[in-house]
Amino acid sequence: MLLxxxxxxxxxxxxxxxxxxxxxxxxxxxxxxxxxxxxxxxxAEWVLRSRYRLSRMxxxxxxxxxxxxxxxxxxxxxxxxxxxxxxxxxxxxxxFVHILSCDDCEGFATFDAALQxxxxxxxxxxxxxxx
Length: 131
Known about the structure:
Blueprint: E1 2-4, H1 7-15, H2 19-29, E2 33-36, H3 38-50, H4 56-68, E3 72-74, H5 77-89, H6 93-101, E4 108-110, H7 113-118, E5 127-129
Parallel strand pairs: 1-2, 2-3, 4-5
């Protein structure tokens, strides 16, 4: 059976700061698979960065490992790898998730000049200023 996972599940697996809860998650994973929506990944990045003070490298490494776990299905894991790789070096994880979610669009409109400057031709969609 596939169950959706809340942010606190993802965070707990990464920081392992509550042994009893981690044990409960591992027991759950022995009988179920977990689905992690992109929205949970967005919130988890914020919690890990702001509450736990993890570095972008620590978060990117943890997210990449999470995407490879056998019993956890991260929404758009293949596309999310691009966002994780971009985030690893610089930028805002949320922006990258927004961009990867718009890969069927003609472009991604923003007022964020830094994001526009950082954009590359190998990104899933072009980033443009609002005309």
